[in-house]
Amino acid sequence: MRIIIVEDEYYLAQSIQNRLSDKLGARCEIYRSYREALESDGEIFIINTTISGASTGLLEELIEMKKDSIILLLTSYVSHQTVTKPIELGADDYMLKPISVEELIRKIRHFLHYYQLKRRLKEMQEFLNFALREVEVDVPEPNYPLFLLSNVRLLAEKVAVELASRENKTIKLVDLTKANKRSFWEKEVFYFCTNFDKVKEEQELLRAMRGRSVVIHLTQRLEREGVEVVELKSNTFSLDEEILPIEEYVKRVILYYQSRYPDTVLSKKLGISRKSLWEKRKKYGISKK
């Protein structure tokens, strides 16, 4: 880990360098001006915002350029130029001099952990979007709690992800057989619930869900008065549904894969000639887009 220290008080900079090298095993570089630090590269920047005679323009340029790294500010006094503006530009936090190096180390560890979690969250979101990219389903208008009927759970999950994204909420998975009224206390969370058919005290849970964004996945029809159930349909090819006639499978394969493969490849995968593929399109009323 490389840490860049931008500080004109040499003894302070050297003290910080020694402690960070000892406690974190970091490789530290010391720069006494913002201009010198512009050419540096590191995971963490510790910047004195009150360097004597230094240009605030260069300070702002440095922070703008390095804002993808962790930036901790050291300052002799708090003002718009020394703290507020740098944080608006991308700095993470500040410390008022004289500083405690132990507190500085604590902040560094905190932000390392924070950005690690942030990267993991981003990677998981990208993977989730990738996994669901080919699942095609109409997303209903939410009237919470939203009951979704589908024997393919992936369809309900796609709806939940879409709605949670629209509302800018994180998703929490709830097994209703293990839930109680306290399971729904967080208002800024999107709840995806399963096993509603196995719940005994359902009315208590339904009351707890009021005012919350809740999707309940059902695998069988629900006979409850006053409960509206949305049945999900999809054009996505799946083997998780009920057994269908061979001709219906062939039709679905053509519909789903004709945009991904040329006719020569698709007909070969189906074990038929291109002429037979054209004939099946005509028979099923499928137009090639």
Task: Describe the 3D structure.
The chain has 289 residues and is α/β, with parallel strands linked by helices. It has ten helices and ten strands. The protein has three domains: 117 residues, Response regulator (Rossmann fold, 3-Layer(aba) Sandwich); 86 residues, no CATH class; 39 residues. 43% of the residues lie in helices and 17% in strands. The protein has a five-stranded parallel beta sheet with strand order 2-1-3-4-5, sandwiched between helices. A five-stranded parallel beta sheet has the order 7-8-9-6-10, covered by helices on one side. The radius of gyration is 29 Å and the shape is elongated. The two termini are 52 Å apart. The mean pLDDT is 90.
List keywords for this structure.
289 residues, alpha/beta, Rossmann fold, 5-stranded parallel beta sheet, 43% helix, 17% strand, elongated
Detail the topology: elements first, then pairings.
Blueprint: E1 2-6, H1 10-24, E2 27-31, H2 34-37, E3 44-48, H3 56-66, E4 70-75, H4 80-89, E5 93-96, H5 101-131, E6 146-149, H6 153-166, E7 170-175, E8 189-194, H7 202-208, E9 213-218, E10 229-231, H8 246-257, H9 263-270, H10 274-284
Parallel strand pairs: 1-2, 1-3, 3-4, 4-5, 6-9, 6-10, 7-8, 8-9
Helix pairs in contact: 3-4
